[in-house]
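User: Run a structure prediction on this.
Assistant: Running it now.
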Amino acid sequence: MVGCKQNDYDKQCLDCIDDSINLTVPWYLIASYAYYEEDNPILSDGVFDRLGKKMLKNWEKIEHIHKAFITEDMLEAGTFIGTYPSRIRGALLTLRGK
């Protein structure tokens, strides 16, 4: 869904991560970038928290090329302190329809 409202992004995220645990990684990174770098969140705090908890619970099962950008400590803290893969900004722009 391009150009969604925040609650639509919440639903889209939850639907995606229910289908594939591996999609938690890009959603976490994109949502973190929107929140921390642009000060314009795409997910509600509650959905972001659920996303992090789901990742922690399934950490050993998750397979994604950008998993190394995230640590379990970050997930436990409910934050992102690190560098972003170069694709994340573009992925956020695409998601927002820009």
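The helical segments are 6-19, 24-37, 45-57, 72-77, 87-96.
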